């Protein structure tokens, strides 16, 4: 007696399809049975009901895309499989265009390919298009799909067909899935997030930036005018840059690097020099905090070579100085700090996005004071830090905390422990979610310097060390790591 096939095996699926067809069941009924019996996702169930492999579906999609102008889509078996698995982590969200082509291939509606889990994961814009009475312009066509085995047109029919195809393509070329007002709103939202980050909750801003990035990515999968695509790529670059910056502030350097590479790709696709400079600034920051100091210098110099008009040039010179000071190269560090001041005097206009993508005087002073302290000039560092606090411009809580730590370290270097303790009070008062990795590292460096100093055994120094250790236990990177099971208490 032959062995019974495993539940859901190819043989069992084929047997079920044949039995249900003989019973007069429709394809939709076969799909429903497969989903109920083997808990298949809808897109996989439709493919299995047809009895097709992933590659066979990919081939049919390519044919359908060629016959429907405006729906060009390169697909393969792997991509179709990812569409089926989405919204699982191993999957990939299919665009509305991909869903439309799948529905055309399977002979169903787009709604038939989605379940509740899919709808929960779809962007609100896609859901609105699904519920609109008219289909999206990019998926419609007036060309009649010619059967694969039909004879090609000849004579006047060939001429008429070619003209019809050109006219239909022209109609498609005139359509866009995003308007200028929508682009303005996306840029405004991007600016808001970049500005909010310097004062707000990091994870909340990260979550919103991720949603906005997905919205921009989804639009880029559609069709728009070249100038609109350029704007979308620029916004995607800024959003990935913001995600990279936040990831590094939370101590996740590998993830930050990934975001930085994607941001660079977007800047290249947009041909946007100002964005290129900001992305290289972000990547320089990540490399520095990851210990890749020479790479940090190279990124900063490459960014400066784009001659940015806003304050990116100031920050890039500051970051180069930061890396040189950590390498112990005092002369090079001083030269870079001077270039930062010169770049500040040459700034033209306002930064496009601002917020984290801006380097105003307080931020420049943060870098300058830290560099001066490292190269053995605590008097200069203290003057730079104290002058920074006389500025009335808005300041990020993280930057302010770093400047205060530099002040405290300068006081310790000058044998003034009471001044250091008083300076650090606002830093110790920061809530855990605002104790970001750069601040945590700076305060750990302060603790290490204090432990090596002649005052290490004094009562003020011992008390300060205890406060530093307690503060670091509740830093944002540590809390995040523990929440993911990456550490132990």
Features:
489 residues, mainly alpha, 68% helix
SS class: mainly alpha
**Radius of gyration from the alpha-carbon trace, in angstroms:** 29 Å
Annotation, overall tally of beta strands? 0
> Terminal Cα separation, in Å?
59 Å
Mean pLDDT: 85
CATH architecture of the largest domain: Alpha Horseshoe
Q: Kindly report the CATH topology of the largest domain.
A: Serine Threonine Protein Phosphatase 5, Tetratricopeptide repeat
Describe this structure in words.
The protein has helices spanning 10-22, 27-38, 42-50, 54-67, 77-85, 96-106, 116-121, 124-131, 155-173, 180-197, 202-220, 226-249, 253-270, 273-289, 293-305, 312-326, 330-345, 361-374, 378-388, 397-413, 417-428, 437-452, 459-473, 476-483. The protein has 489 residues and is an all-alpha fold. The chain has three domains: 10-145 and 159-168, no CATH class; 176-359, Alpha Horseshoe (Serine Threonine Protein Phosphatase 5, Tetratricopeptide repeat), CATH 1.25.40; 390-489. Helix 1 crosses helix 2 and helix 19 runs antiparallel to helix 20 (397-413). The longest helix has 24 residues, at 226-249. The chain is elongated and about 90 Å long. It starts with 9 loop residues before the first helix and ends in a 6-residue tail after the last helix. Mean pLDDT is 85; it is low at 1-6, 133-145 and 485-489.
């Amino acid at each position: 007696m032959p062995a019974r096939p495993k539940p859901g095996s190819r043989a069992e699926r084929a047997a079920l399809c044949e039995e249900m067809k003989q019973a007069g069941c429709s394809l939709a009924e076969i799909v429903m049975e497969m989903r109920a019996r083997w808990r298949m996702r809808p897109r996989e169930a439709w493919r299995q009901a047809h009895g097709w492999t992933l590659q066979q579906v990919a081939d049919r999609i390519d044919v359908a895309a060629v016959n429907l102008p405006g729906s060009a889509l390169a697909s393969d078996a792997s991509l179709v499989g990812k569409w089926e698995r989405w919204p699982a982590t191993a999957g990939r969200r299919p665009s509305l265009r991909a869903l439309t082509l799948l529905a055309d291939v399977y002979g169903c509606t787009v709604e038939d390919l989605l379940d509740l889990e899919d709808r929960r994961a779809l962007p609100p814009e896609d859901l609105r298009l699904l519920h609109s009475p008219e289909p999206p312009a990019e998926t419609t066509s007036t060309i009649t799909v010619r059967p694969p085995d039909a004879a090609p047109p000849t004579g006047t029919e060939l001429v008429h067909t070619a003209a019809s195809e050109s006219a239909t393509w022209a109609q498609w070329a005139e359509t866009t899935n995003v308007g200028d007002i929508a682009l303005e709103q996306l840029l405004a939202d991007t600016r808001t997030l970049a500005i909010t980050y310097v004062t707000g909750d990091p994870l909340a801003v990260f979550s919103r930036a991720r949603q906005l990035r997905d919205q921009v990515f989804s639009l880029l999968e559609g069709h728009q005018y070249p100038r609109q695509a350029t704007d979308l790529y620029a916004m995607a670059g800024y959003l990935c840059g913001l995600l990279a910056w936040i990831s590094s502030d939370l101590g996740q350097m590998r993830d930050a690097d990934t975001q930085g590479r994607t941001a660079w790709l977007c800047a290249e696709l947009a041909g946007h020099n100002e964005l290129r400079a900001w992305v290289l600034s972000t990547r320089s920051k990540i490399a520095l905090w990851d210990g890749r100091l020479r790479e940090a210098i190279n990124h900063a110099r490459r960014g400066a070579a784009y001659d940015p008009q806003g304050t990116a040039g100031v920050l890039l010179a500051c970051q180069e100085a930061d890396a040189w000071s950590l390498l112990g190269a005092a002369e090079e560090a001083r030269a870079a700090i001077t270039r930062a001041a010169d770049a500040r005097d040459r700034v033209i206009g306002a930064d496009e996005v601002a917020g984290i993508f801006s380097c105003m005087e307080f931020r420049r002073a943060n870098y300058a004071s830290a560099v001066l302290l490292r190269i053995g000039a605590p008097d200069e560092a203290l003057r730079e830090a104290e002058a920074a606090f006389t500025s009335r411009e808005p300041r990020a809580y993280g930057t302010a905390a770093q400047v205060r730590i530099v002040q405290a370290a300068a006081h310790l270097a000058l044998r003034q422990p009471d001044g250091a303790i008083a300076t650090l009070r606002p830093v110790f008062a920061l809530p855990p979610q605002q104790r970001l990795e750069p601040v945590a590292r700076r305060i750990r460096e302060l603790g290490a310097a204090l432990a090596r100093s002649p005052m290490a055994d004094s009562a003020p120094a011992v008390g300060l060390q205890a406060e530093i250790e307690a503060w670091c236990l509740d830093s944002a990177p540590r809390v995040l790591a523990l929440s993911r099971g990456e550490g132990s208490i």
